[in-house]
Write a structure and sequence with these properties.
elongated; alpha/beta; Helicase, Ruva Protein, domain 3; single chain; 5-stranded parallel β-sheet
Length: about 270
């Protein structure tokens, strides 16, 4: 965002950027409940499924989860490049764990399990493997995940899987070939779009955290912002920032409904 916007509204930094510290993460009651559920599941060394539409804020929930888990007791491994066959998928996991990858999938599988066992037995760390965009995982790779989580005849809970994907991913897991993985999931967390009130709360909080001292959006501006974005936080960020940019260039002090509509037309979402 240009300095002109920060100067126009007395902001210290970009209010809708992604580089937020954990303490500045905005969580409404449902998102806080999602984080609490995931903390409980991981603490119990179980597996979880997180679903939600693209841009609804699933990554925010994951970042809040990371902030809640002590790095002394937990080792979070985040993998987002999941459109891979079994061999390349294991290479990604090896890379994330800091393990030298092997040529054969079986050798990498053994190395991963050995590393996880070492983390648990020697370092007293519980590994948590977070797979983002899980709906893109090929069936052959997805069908093998339950084997990765199987230790000592499925008696030792040494690894927690957190699968994150679009809502239709939950239906895919119900297919017969993935039932073994589905039955190992202990909890399902659904991240929903925000309500109109929470969209307003979200924007106000982001502006306040950026140094905003006054009410910048008019009530009808908030209402249209929610209507145009459907409460999808990523879209809220785009349209809210476009509205601030347009307001700064037109010397408007308040972002009202008419300005939000004009700004929306300048975004790829229109």
């Amino acid at each position: 965002m240009s300095d002109r916007i920060q100067e126009a509204f007395g902001l210290r930094r970009r209010p809708f950027g992604k580089d937020l510290p954990p303490e500045a993460m905005w969580l409404d009651q449902t998102r806080q409940s999602a984080v609490d559920t995931l903390v409980d599941v991981v603490s119990a060394r179980q597996h979880a499924l997180v679903t939600g539409e693209s841009g609804v804020g699933k990554t925010c929930v994951l970042r809040a989860l990371r902030a809640k888990l002590s790095p002394v007791h937990y080792r979070l491994v985040y993998v987002s490049h999941v459109t891979l066959g079994k061999r390349d998928f294991y290479r990604q996991v090896c890379l994330a764990l800091g393990i030298e990858s092997k040529f054969m999938p079986a050798a990498m599988f053994e190395a991963i399990q050995r590393n996880i066992h070492q983390l648990t037995a020697e370092h007293r760390q519980h590994p948590v493997l977070i797979l983002d965009e899980a709906q893109l995982i090929p069936d052959d790779t997805l069908a093998h995940l339950h084997v990765l989580a199987n230790f000592d005849w499925d008696s030792q809970p040494m690894l927690s899987l957190v699968l994150v994907g679009l809502p239709e991913f939950a239906d895919r897991l119900k297919l017969g070939i993935h039932r073994s993985l589905l039955t190992r999931m202990s909890a399902k967390v659904e991240v929903q779009p925000t309500s109109p009130e929470h969209t307003m709360s979200y924007v106000r909080q982001r502006l306040k955290d950026a140094g905003g001292k006054a009410e910048i959006f008019a009530p009808d501006g908030y209402a249209l912002l929610h209507e145009l974005t459907g409460g999808m936080l990523r879209s809220v960020d785009v349209v809210a920032e476009a509205s601030l940019r347009l307001a700064a260039h037109t010397d408007a002090r308040i972002v009202d409904r008419a300005l939000v509509r004009r700004a929306f037309q300048l975004t790829p979402l229109s």
